[in-house]
């Protein structure tokens, strides 16, 4: 996709630019920060995701003739602002948490350094991408730990906007899902795709046996047959008759899974199909997955709850001005004082402090004003350069960047205190401290 | 946007097509139906939205070289299926509820008639669009009725995926919102756009007075000044000093709005700014809006809760095969029997029965098999042709179709029994009956 992302933006970003231009302050050097004030729903940690998509989107944040004409015709901004926008591209620096990294309240997830004009324009786009992708990744990580090693497939495309579906598949994969049903996610981000069959396929045929036979003729005996269109025991018997004991898997999409899964396992075993797997897909979330730990389930397919962040579809990240140069050229930390929404001024760096066993113990935030912040021996630096002088670092982009994010996520989950995996509500599992 | 939507799809849609092709049943004439089994969260009605976007997306559901190459390289389907897909376009008929219409459990929202192959492929895309847009429109309609005539602005772009943000702005507008912050929604769907300023704008300046002055210099005294970056009373006084008593509005984004709004109103009045409006934007949902009915608020800005469907971010619509021709050429109703997920077979038409006062009393669903279903004098037909022999009806598309949907929504809300506006959980406000 090469189309412009410039209008995927709130109107006030442009009118603020316009007013700053008129006031002569548009070029004032600024530092903006993305952070979350809290973790929604008593989560113990958040998973940062969206960077790979965001870097592409920032590069495509350019105002072409079409965009400028519309802005002019609709009198959104002045002629001076239109001239500025015509030449706009972000030429500043952005550093941030690696994609797949864990985060906590106050973690300085993205630090955007550039002129006010260049930086303020990106607010809406940055938050749209990060808030959605991180909400899904956070829900996904909890499902992955609840599944205790059993593979999970993302299959929620039909339960979120058609483009968000691609982002959700990507975020879930970064957080440890094994595959997605979404083909565009396979094409664009090289995520493994999977699929079974729908009830409609069975209903198309004159009977279930013909449907199973047709699916096996086309996809082989390793396929997954859907066994709950009519009576499950009949379908399981038919499935093994048609496919033989080498049948890959059966899928169950309804009923009380605790009971049905045990019955199906017993039936498959009695028919000799001992290696045929059972996959379940019935409105699962992390709690339902955890509750099935003792059931002979082999894999899970998760839809609605995953792509809607399991009750928290937006991560609650905000984009705040935290510093700018004053008239004398010195950096000045700034912060609003709004009730219950205060922010901490200053350009920030972040580190994760670990004990001698490598277990995370604190999120340490240091301000630029404390000198050049570096990691102590027991700390790991959390921010990396993402954009330097307007140039996107290639290693965070595309399928390779996405695969790296997935690997990084696995590594940092291993640092999490064991209690952090608990699904119950609580405080963030490690404190955020300002050094 | 002319890009293909063909891969915004679950893999199994394509493998089912492939298997049906091999079995020689791909051309079997079928009827698929979109419906919701229930209204989420004890809602009293749902608002159907997304049609205008969907019709575009279906037209762009074509497999070009890029898509076919990827499918071939990744061995998603056989060569026969690739040949079929290369020529694919939907040539059947789709009728459905008008966009903006109300719906209830079992309402046959979309009826897709075509070959199995042509129709099954559209499942994921249809549900992605309708589930998200209808979730937002339903939440929006409840907010509009809670606001009792005060205007609402949609400003949630940063709290949902960047493309879903455009869809959300459109859905909210159809359901009665007055404007959106999202510029792309303005360009693509001709929805009025609005904006104020962010805290960052105030913080950019050396003091609040300079920031207000700069905004007024750029946008005029009719603008909306954000007054909670520091102390609200100081900001209100400064705002009126700078803008005069003709100041358009002030925005409050934090604090206990019941108290703050009353204080700000009193202060504005005491300063002579009696016509300056107050807009509030602090994590509002339909309940918070309703609770402010007695406060001197002039307008609301709604973000997170709107674009995430106020607790129910997916409408729960499904796409089911309900009939196909049998080998003899006769229509056969089909339905799965899965526990708690059973569906009703047959091609359906729908009507809203109204009493002599014009108040809706029942959702009446009639099957094709009952003869050609037509409306009785006390009924209004709910379905309209959307696509005929593959050709999209132009009146439902683009900005004009969207404006028509908004008008239609206003008209049908007037039919709703008064109790239907209650925000509390309950049963659907009218029953769905199968004639």
TrEMBL record, chains A, B:
UniProt catalytic activity: 5-phospho-alpha-D-ribose 1-diphosphate + nicotinate + ATP + H2O = nicotinate beta-D-ribonucleotide + ADP + phosphate + diphosphate
InterPro entries: Aldolase_TIM (IPR013785), NAPRTase_N (IPR040727), Nic_PRibTrfase-Fam (IPR007229), Nic_PRibTrfase_pncB (IPR006405), Nicotinate_pribotase-like_C (IPR036068)
Claim: Transmembrane helix is one of the keywords in the record: no
Pathway: Cofactor biosynthesis; NAD(+) biosynthesis; nicotinate D-ribonucleotide from nicotinate: step 1/1
SUPFAM superfamilies with a match to the protein in the record: Nicotinate/Quinolinate PRTase C-terminal domain-like (SSF51690), Nicotinate/Quinolinate PRTase N-terminal domain-like (SSF54675)
Listed EC numbers: 6.3.4.21
One GO term of the biological process aspect: NAD+ biosynthetic process via the salvage pathway
GO MF assignments: glycosyltransferase activity; nicotinate phosphoribosyltransferase activity
Name of this protein: Nicotinate phosphoribosyltransferase
Source organism of the structure: Amnibacterium flavum
């Amino acid at each position: 996709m090469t189309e412009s992302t410039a209008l995927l933006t709130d109107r006030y970003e442009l009118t603020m630019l316009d007013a700053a231009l008129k006031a002569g302050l548009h070029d004032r050097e600024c530092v903006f920060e993305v952070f979350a004030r809290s973790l929604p729903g008593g989560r113990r940690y958040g998973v940062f995701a969206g960077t790979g998509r965001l870097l592409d989107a920032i590069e495509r944040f350019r105002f072409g003739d079409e965009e400028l004409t519309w802005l002019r015709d609709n009198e959104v901004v002045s002629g001076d602002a239109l001239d500025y926008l015509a030449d706009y591209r972000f030429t500043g620096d952005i550093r941030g948490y690696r994609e797949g990294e864990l985060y906590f309240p106050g973690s300085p997830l993205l630090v955007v350094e550039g002129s006010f004009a260049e930086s303020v324009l990106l607010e809406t786009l940055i938050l749209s991408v990060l808030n959605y992708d991180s909400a899904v990744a956070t829900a996904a990580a909890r499902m992955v730990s609840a599944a205790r090693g059993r593979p999970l497939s993302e299959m929620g495309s039909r339960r979120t906007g058609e483009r968000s579906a691609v982002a959700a598949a990507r975020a879930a994969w970064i957080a440890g899902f094994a595959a997605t049903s979404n083909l565009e996610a396979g094409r664009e981000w090289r995520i493994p795709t999977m699929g079974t069959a729908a009830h409609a396929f069975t209903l198309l045929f004159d009977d279930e046996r013909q449907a199973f036979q047709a699916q096996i003729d086309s996809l082989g005996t390793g396929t997954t047959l859907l066994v709950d269109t009519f009576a499950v025991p009949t379908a399981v018997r038919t499935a093994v008759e048609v496919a033989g004991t080498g049948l890959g898997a059966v899928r169950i999409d309804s009923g009380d899974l605790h009971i049905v899964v045990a019955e199906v396992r017993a039936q498959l075993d009695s028919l000799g199909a001992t290696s045929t797997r059972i996959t379940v897909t019935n409105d699962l979330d992390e709690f339902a997955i955890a509750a099935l730990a003792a059931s002979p389930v082999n894999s899970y397919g998760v839809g609605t709850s995953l792509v809607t962040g399991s009750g928290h579809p937006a991560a609650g990240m905000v984009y705040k001005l935290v510093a700018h140069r004053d008239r004398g050229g010195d950096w000045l930390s700034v912060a609003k004082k709004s009730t219950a929404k205060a922010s901490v001024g200053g350009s920030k760096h972040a580190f994760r402090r670990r004990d001698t066993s490598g277990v995370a113990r604190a999120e340490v935030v240091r301000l630029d004003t404390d000198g050049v912040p570096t990691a102590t021996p027991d700390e790991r630096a959390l921010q990396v350069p993402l954009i330097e002088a307007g140039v996107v670092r290639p290693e965070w982009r595309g399928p390779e960047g996405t695969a790296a994010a997935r690997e990084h996520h696995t590594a940092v989950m291993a640092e999490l205190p064991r209690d952090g995996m608990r699904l119950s509500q609580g405080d963030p599992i490690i404190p955020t401290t300002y050094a």
